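Render this sequence as a predicted structure.
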Amino acid sequence: MESITIKVDDRLAGEIKTAMSPYYSTKTEFIREAIRDKIKTIKKDAVYEELKKNFGKSKIKTTYADDRRIREEVSKKMAEKFGIALE
């Protein structure tokens, strides 16, 4: 496991302490979870940007059922590509 040291100002340290209790027992645990959440958000944003680039580019008309099926297939592929678990 790699060790990373960070410095924060007193105000931010106080906010971390307030936000973490009673859910986290240590600041390290709280910060790890915050980093995981941020990474997940960055990956989701990348997926949305990729989807927006391709939204509405179809040259042929499809039925609503076909649209749903295609969207589900594309969503699964994009989630795999960006390492996001679909719920």
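Summary. The mean pLDDT is 89. The first helix runs from residue 10 to 20.
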